[in-house]
Amino acid sequence: MRKIALLAGALALVAGTTACGSTTDSGQASEPPKLFGNAQELVLASSGKADQAQTAKFTLTGSVAGQTLDAGGEGRFTGPSPAMTMTMNVAGQSQEMRVVDKVLYLKLPPEQAAQAVEGGKPWAKVPEDSEAGKAIGASMDQAAQGDPTQVLEQIQQAGTITRSEQTTLDGQQVSHYWVNIDVAKATDTLNTGELPPEVLDKLKNSGTVIPMEVWLDADQLPVQVTQDLTPLMRAAGAPAEAQNATMTMKYRDWGAPVDVAAPPADQVGDLKTIG
Known about the structure:
The protein is α+β, with helices and mostly antiparallel strands. It has helices spanning 2-20, 39-53, 110-116, 131-136, 138-145, 150-158, 183-186, 197-204, 230-235, and strands spanning 55-64, 67-76, 83-90, 93-100, 103-107, 123-127, 159-169, 172-182, 209-216, 222-228, 245-252, 268-270.
C-alpha cells in the first residue's frame, strides 16, 4: 500500500505541475476567447501567458490504479526558484508534498514514517538523483523542474486538435478544445519514468492515443485540463484493476503570491524505501 500511495502521489504531483503551467482565473470576458485551428497556434498563445503569470493555485481530482485522488495546492512555476506544494488524499490517507530546489518532500503518516524515513522524521526527502527518486521515476524530475508548459509541450509535440468550441465554464467564457495525444510522440513528456525500456518500446509502437480536453480563458490560459490515461495504462500492460486513470485539474489565481519552502531541516530524513 505504501508503494501504491507514493506512486499515485507522484503521478498526481506530475499531473498537477504539468498542467500548472497552463491556467488562471481571470474573470469575465466581454467576448469569447479566440479559437485556434492547430496545436502550434494554441501553444504559442498560451505558453507565453503562463510564463508571465508564473504562479497559480490548483485542484486535482481523479482516479489512479483504483485509488481516488483529491488534492489542492499552489506553485511558483517559472523564475529563479520554482517550487510547489500540494496536499492530497490518496487511498484514504492524507499526504503533503512539496518540491523545492529539485527535491521532493513527502509528509508521511507516523506509522509509515517510522519505517520508511531515516530517524523516523515526519518528512521524507527524495532527491532526484537518489535511488528512491529513480524508483518513483523520471516524472519526479519533471515535477522538480516545475515546468509550467509541460501540458502545452505535450500538445505541441504530439497533439492534434480534433474539435473546438466557444462555451462557458464556471461562469466565464472559454474556448474548449478536444485534443488527441499520440503516445509514440510524447513518451519523453509523459509520466513513464518507472516503466522499463521494453514497456516504453511497446508503448511507442502501440498506436495509443490519450484523450485530453483543455479549456482556455480570455487570456488563453487553461482554467481546466482533463486527461484519460486509461489507454496508456492498458497499453503498458497494467493489471485490469489498475488500468483506470483519469485526471481533472482546475486552476485559478494566476500571478497571485505563493509561499512555498522546504520543511524545517530537523523534521526531514532521507526516504529509505518505497517498497
